[in-house]
Structure to design on (321 residues):
């Protein structure tokens, strides 16, 4: 891309976990005003993205977030897009899978992060229309290391399954605590579980976890004529060769965002507004997260069909049968 003369360089700015830290860092780095960046790919966390949105909207700089929370793009913000699949679509796929398994009463347990809060909102909003009854609703902080108190309450409820919606390390702690308490009901995780390291860290407690995920983690099961197969297989091969570790969905979200910016630069050149307009009108872009179709009304570009339901078997991800 550099040799094509599309841009002179790129700037990597690392952010701290706290949303306010990103806001301060972006202002201090002056990515927009001093460095005159044409577009921003990231942040990778929902809370940090939400903190940055007012800045990029005011400055009119395209931002392609790598974070999942639906509130990033709903309601639509003129200059903000995202590549991970929507929270609502993940919740729907979880509930549809539960219905197929005869589950109607559930417990939800969520982290009090931006991602966890937004997931909880979607789980509660969509449950009635999909005929799912939430009989227990618990939360925990991002620094909590033991959720047995919350899970003990859930165990005493009529819940037939548990949905955990959080980022690490909460996902693993909940799984281990459920095993310690002798809970036998299924554990569903959000699409934030898409890294095999999480399943490996959970060990035996991770066996049987069910979660929605993009097809990157199931590429080997796809038919050769699947529209994503070539892109996913190439990304997986190149990523694992370079980093010598199993691929995860999260790097794929950044790759998708960067490819969208590169495609825009090739077509319209170094103009922020034209880049924004190009991305907003992109159709049938094959990425790692799905096949994207953006519009003025949809800055996510994906449907619920971008998800596969996966499960953990012998510390590996496999398609749920």
């Amino acid at each position: 891309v550099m040799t094509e003369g599309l841009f002179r360089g790129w700037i990597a700015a690392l952010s701290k976990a706290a949303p306010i830290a990103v806001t301060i860092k972006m202002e201090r780095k002056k990515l927009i005003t001093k460095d005159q960046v044409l577009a921003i790919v990231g942040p990778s966390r929902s809370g940090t993205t939400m903190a940055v949105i007012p800045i990029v909207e005011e400055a009119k700089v395209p931002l392609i977030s790598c974070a999942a929370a639906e509130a990033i793009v709903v309601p639509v913000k003129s200059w903000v897009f995202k590549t991970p699949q929507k929270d609502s679509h993940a919740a729907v796929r979880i509930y549809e899978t539960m219905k197929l398994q005869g589950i109607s009463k559930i417990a939800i347990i969520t982290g009090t992060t931006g991602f966890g809060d937004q997931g909880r909102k979607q789980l509660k909003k969509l449950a009635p229309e999909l005929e799912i009854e939430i009989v227990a609703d618990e939360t925990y902080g991002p620094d909590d290391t033991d959720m047995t108190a919350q899970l003990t309450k859930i165990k005493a409820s009529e819940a037939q399954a548990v949905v955990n919606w959080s980022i690490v390390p909460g996902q693993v702690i909940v799984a281990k605590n459920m095993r310690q308490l002798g809970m036998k009901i299924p554990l569903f995780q959000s699409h934030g579980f898409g890294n095999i390291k999480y399943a490996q860290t959970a060990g035996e407690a991770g066996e049987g976890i069910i979660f929605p995920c993009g097809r990157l983690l199931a590429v080997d099961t796809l038919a050769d004529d699947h529209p994503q197969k070539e892109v996913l297989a190439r990304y997986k091969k190149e990523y694992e060769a370079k980093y010598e570790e199993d691929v995860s969905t999260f790097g794929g979200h950044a790759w998708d965002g960067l490819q969208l910016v590169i495609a825009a630069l090739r077509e319209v050149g170094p103009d922020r507004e034209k880049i924004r307009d190009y991305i907003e009108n992109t159709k049938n872009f094959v990425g790692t997260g799905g096949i994207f179709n953006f519009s003025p009304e949809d800055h996510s570009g994906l449907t619920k069909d971008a998800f596969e339901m996966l499960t953990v078997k012998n510390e590996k991800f496999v398609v749920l049968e």
